[in-house]
Design brief:
alpha+beta; Ubiquitin-like (UB roll); Creatine Kinase, Chain A, domain 2; Four Helix Bundle (Hemerythrin (Met), subunit A); 20 strands; binds adenosine-5'-diphosphate; binds magnesium ion
Length: 710
């Protein structure tokens, strides 16, 4: 795409019609219209069936297989009334995306066809899944994977141009019951956290209640015009730009964040929200993000399993609606080098009955529980930061962790000043008092005032307490939340379990003292993970090293945490993974990383050779002939400048040639690190050439165009 094409794109964008404001009046929202939710269950199922299904959904009672036929029938009627002709089991394979295989309801019957959907169709599916990554779990002789209905995530309808499909959320397992997906371990981890929490609450003499793990996933993304996207083979193939010099103006002005949203983008956002609301996804906030052309969508938090599914749908809807609007939604963690990357902040908490356990309470009893849970989270993060890192490791996120405005690869916990003060006093063994200097103890004999309005002004922490929840900011924008949630649930379950064991043995008369001792010793042992300062600073890196906190060491090393014997033991103890499952995951994720790096290397090489070298050569040729003319005219003026330019271009050509040869060799050898080094080398020279070669001749849309013209 040379300038004539690039400028055509710019002209086309400038000429796009912009709709005027919407007419006044109510709009039809249709929230949850395309979800087989409680309302539909009650309306479409016989009463006893509805009751049983709702008990499973709300109280996690085992599903009664007897009701499957009835549920299937009601669901089919509901779906057909809404235009569905097909159904699919919808699941989360290890690729990190979603998978579906559609079957029509249609079944020939004599000369006619009838619409059928049996209980078995609902409960199990057998997708021909031999090509999903399984890390050797499915040997070819048993190359079958089963999908099984997850009734706790409601079925929904997905619409496309001329039809609709009933989607049934499912888990995906091997013939022998091993998890081949991201949902199975997530559900197991929720169970583990639920069990541990119940044990803890029993030790605190609380009546039995349901445990709910909650997640609110803030989704960051970029939008660029589709014309630019299609002219960038790197974006099309890898989701990120492998070349491109940062523009003179980008986020230094910080004028984009929370700025007024442009019309074209707002139109897109409204369409996205309408679709999400129909799917019962509570999209709540929308705003510009830090980088130009970067935006965020945040839903209200929900049950973690549902929120994970919903986030997968959010990503899909963002992509589809962008496409309809002549835009492309980039979900890669680092589409543009040197520019803010995209994350997916995972706001996480868990509740016992109606009580959020990470909410500092009004009464002393709840505060004792709150401080116990808080201490458990701190301990869990300190002990298992390797697993948290493994959960967010990946080729894309690798560029983000530790880069512009992203949390560093060193895990730490931010508590905020007030809470930190309380933790410090707890650790010193002094009477705990709030910043309002009210003496408080964590026991039940006095009335503590814990800060409820602990606002989080620290945006640099990877794991921040934000008033009534923790916000895990390291997950990448393209990643499923399932992995991060699964690790968090499991590591916290493990510590809660340990605490519950100890607390249940406390002597009745000495409960408060013993609890204070338990918390104090644990805070002392794990306070190194608490950091309330600037996580982006060099001082913190040094300080963290002094504290013995390890920075994540790249994707493959990071993933190795999954197969460390102590971690295998942890996951096995809580029935989240077997050793075999962990080994298979390690294999799948490492392969995925290697494949992605290899693709990047190949595309970078092709672009360098077939687009950049020709452009630089053309400029060289023109410059050389200009210099020849100058020389033949025997004029001194201009010859020095032309000579310098010719040298610069010539050196550029030599540089790209040399680095490309290194890249070719690295690709032959198959070493990811060598591929990355050589790609960076090619890029460095190419980006320099971008600023020298005539703008009209540069083959790739530039950062200043992609990020600012839309
Ligand atoms: P901010 O925008 O400052 O990060 P918000 O209060 O807007 O904070 O919350 C961000 C996200 O946290 C939202 O998705 C919100 O629904 C979610 N959230 C709030 N409370 C909880 C909770 N108890 N558990 C999980 N997520 C929560
Ligand atoms: Mg946030």
């Amino acid at each position: 795409m040379n300038m004539s094409n690039r400028s055509k794109t710019v002209t086309a964008i400038a000429a796009r019609p912009i709709d005027g404001p919407a007419p006044a009046g109510n709009i039809e929202i249709g929230y949850g219209d395309d979800v087989f939710n409680t309302d539909s269950i009650i309306r479409y199922l016989p009463k006893p069936t509805a009751q049983k299904l709702l008990a499973t959904i709300n109280n996690r009672e085992p599903i009664d297989a007897e009701i499957a036929a009835d549920v299937a029938h009601g669901m089919k009627t509901w779906a057909i009334e809404r235009g569905a002709t097909h159904f699919t089991h919808w699941f989360l394979p290890l690729t990190g995306s979603t998978a579906e295989k559609h079957d029509s309801f249609l079944e020939p019957s004599g000369d006619k066809a009838i619409m059928t959907f049996s209980g078995k169709n609902l409960i199990v599916g057998e997708p021909d899944a031999s090509s999903f990554p399984s890390g050797g779990l499915r040997c070819t002789f048993e190359a079958r994977g089963y999908t099984a209905w997850d009734p706790t995530s409601p079925a929904f309808i997905k619409r496309h141009a001329n039809g609709a499909t009933l989607c049934i959320p499912t888990v995906f397992c091997s013939y022998t019951g091993e998890a081949l997906d991201k949902k199975t371990p997530l559900l197991r981890s929720i169970q583990a956290l639920s069990n541990a929490t119940k044990r803890l609450m029993k030790a605190f003499k609380q009546a039995d209640a349901k445990v709910t793990v909650t997640l609110g996933a803030e989704q960051e993304y970029f939008l660029i015009d589709k014309h630019f996207y299609l002219s960038r083979p790197d974006l099309v193939q890898t989701g990120r730009t492998l070349f491109g010099a940062p523009p003179p103006k980008h986020q230094q002005l910080e004028d984009h964040y929370f700025g007024s949203i442009r019309q074209r983008i707002l139109k897109f956002m409204v369409e996205v929200e309408r679709e999400l609301w129909k799917l019962g996804i509570p999209a709540k906030t929308r705003h510009n993000e830090v980088a130009p052309a970067q935006f965020e969508l945040a839903p209200m938090f929900e049950d973690a399993n549902l929120a994970v599914d919903h986030n997968m749908l959010v990503m899909e809807v963002l992509r589809q609606v962008a496409e309809r609007n002549g835009l492309v939604c980039l979900l890669h963690e680092k589409p543009f080098a040197g520019v803010n990357g995209s994350g997916k902040h995972n706001n996480w908490s868990f509740a016992y009955g109606k009580t959020n356990l990470l909410d500092p309470g009004n009464d002393p009893h709840q505060n004792a529980i709150f401080l116990t849970v808080l201490t458990a989270v701190i301990k869990a993060v300190d002990m298992h930061s390797d697993l948290l890192y493994a959960a967010v490791a990946g080729a894309g996120n690798n560029h983000r962790l530790g880069a512009n405005e992203a949390p560093p690869a060193i895990m730490s916990v931010y508590l905020g000043d007030q809470l930190n003060g309380i933790i410090t006093q707890l650790q010193n063994g002094s009477q705990v008092s709030s910043s309002r200097a009210l003496p408080i103890r964590i026991g039940v004999d006095t009335l503590p005032q814990l800060p409820r309005d602990a606002t989080d002004r620290n945006r640099t922490s990877p794991f921040a307490f934000t008033g009534n929840k923790f916000e895990f900011r390291a997950p990448g924008s393209s990643q499923s939340c399932a992995g991060a949630m699964m690790v968090l649930n499991t590591i916290v379950a493990d510590v809660l379990d340990e605490f519950a064991g100890k607390i249940s043995k406390f002597k009745a008369g000495a409960f408060n003292n013993e609890l204070q001792k338990l918390l104090k010793s644990n805070i002392n042992a794990h306070k190194r993970i608490i950091f309330n300062g600037d996580n982006y600073s060099a001082e913190w890196r040094e300080e963290a090293a002094r504290r013995g906190l390890q920075a994540g060491a790249g994707t493959i090393e990071g993933l190795r945490a999954l197969i460390k014997p102590e971690n295998v033991a942890l996951f096995e103890k809580h029935c989240v993974f077997t050793k075999k499952e962990l080994e298979s995951r390690f294999e799948v994720f490492v392969e995925e990383y290697q494949r992605k790096i290899r693709i990047e290397g190949e595309i970078a090489l092709e672009i360098a050779k077939s687009m950049i070298i020709p452009a630089v050569t053309a400029q060289y040729t023109k410059t050389a002939s200009a210099l020849q003319s100058a020389n033949s005219l025997k004029t001194a003026a201009g010859t020095a400048a032309l000579t310098n330019l010719l040298n610069e271009l010539g050196n550029g050509l030599d540089g790209i040639e040399k680095c490309s040869a290194e890249l070719e060799e690295a690709l032959r050898m198959g070493s990811c690190d060598a591929i990355i080094t050589a790609m960076n080398c090619v890029r460095e020279v190419a980006d320099r050439m971008e600023k020298v070669v005539a703008d009209s001749e540069w083959p790739l849309p530039k950062y200043r165009e992609m990020l600012f013209i839309y």
